[in-house]
Amino acid sequence: MRQRTIVCPVIQNDGEYLLCKMASDRGVFPGQWALPGGGIEPGETIETALRREIMEELGDKLLITDIKPWTFRDDVRKKTYPDGTTEDIYMIYLIFDCVSTNRVITYNEEFQDVMWVSPEKIKYMDLNEATSITFAQKGML
Question: Which NCBIfam families match (predicted)?
């Protein structure tokens, strides 16, 4: 089984959190709302990977001013690829609290939509399991 170390930013701006609706035909949580993030590439530091993933997935205009390590966990997930094939992956999540100074986002093909959500509304979202665990640990669910 392949192993991936995932950097996961919990991005907050003016009291709301950024959620991304995953593409319905790929990824670990197709069609559900999730936090952004992705795998660390060989030779990258953790912060370099985090900033790269934010830029790739959310564009280069979203300004992140504060990054603090928050928690970590692991699990096994089934990843679906655009061609319909699947793979079980052992995932190690490194989760960071991040603050953005703006909300300028240009998301890539991994997402169908993005939304800034207040803590009160997060519990009503169709969150994937990993994101639900994260917000439960933060006391919001």
Answer: PRK15472.1
**What whole-number distance in Å separates Cα of residue 26 and Cα of residue 81?**
5
Round to whole Å and give the CA distance between 51 and 26.
Answer: 22
Tokens at 87, concatenated: 């793979």
Exposure class string for 95-133: b at 16+ Cβ within 10 A, else e: bbebbbeeeebebeebbeebebbeeeebeebebbebbbb
Global pTM exceeds 0.85: yes
pLDDT digits (tens, 9 = 90+) for 72-87: 999 998 888 888 888 9
Query: What structural domains and CATH numbers belong to the chain?
Result: 2-138 (3.90.79.10)
